[in-house]
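I had to read the description of the data format several times before I understood it. In essence, backbone conformation is discretised, so a fold becomes a row of integers matching the chain in length. I therefore recommend that a typical entry be quoted early in the introduction. For illustration, here is how one protein appears when written out as sequence plus structure tokens.

***
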Amino acid sequence: MPTIITRASLIPPLQVTLGAVAISFSSVFVRLAQVGPTSAGFYRMLFGALTLLLVLPLLGGRLRPDRRSLGLALLAGLLFAGDLSVWHRSIQGVGPGLATVLGNFQVFVMVGVGALFLHERITPRVLLAVTLALGGLLLLVGPGWSALGGQWRSGVLFGLATALFYAAFIITLRRLQRRPESRHQVMNMALVALWTTLFLAGAVPLSGESFAIPDPLTFTWLLAYGVLCQALGWYLIARGLPGLPLSVAGILILLQPALAFLWDMLLFDRPTTAADLVGAAIVLAAIYLAVTRAPASPGDG
């Protein structure tokens, strides 16, 4: 019997697709904004938090977390502040595309955490994904490791550090979202955004940067970064994920690093070799294999 496609069934994939497209511009806005990496993270979270706080009452939510939820949101905010700080430095070193692909290695960090601490089984599919990912990584960074200088090598290392911070952030956020007392997604996102803003506000002067926004165009890029990528992008993905099979969600979310790599080539004239393209394709395929390592059950979401 053929599957009947209804308007309702198209909404979740459309939400996740639009969310992934919105977030794919994150590294572009960071590159365009004429501020330091920590300052860029601060304004992303500030504008994102303000947007979420304005929207929260319209969606029937209130910012009244219990103590446990507040503590988990604090930890998630601290981890996300670290994630943004190192990721923005990676963008400065290796460009938006490669920095985003490296950050998505968080999938394999989470696989390792699941195997070591949660006793999750490592399947042949996951082993294949890890092997492919390492091979793709060598193609992406191997040829330039000795030729492109210290800033580029630091950018690669910052990108891999992003994966560590991002994985720890997702694990913490997952615990927060699964608590019965804190099931309102926008409230959780607003809480995390507020804590991240506070941590980055303290980190800006410590890193020797300034809160000054040098010109109206930079303000526009930072505002778009916070509203489009942090608030709207993550909200759309959070809304659409529960209505999708894991395999479909994995494919759609891969639009984010794939498009970031494309924007880097189109907007910033990134020098790209055949090895770069093959390496990026292998890494994305490996991430897909890892994300879809288990079929979604009818009760998922």
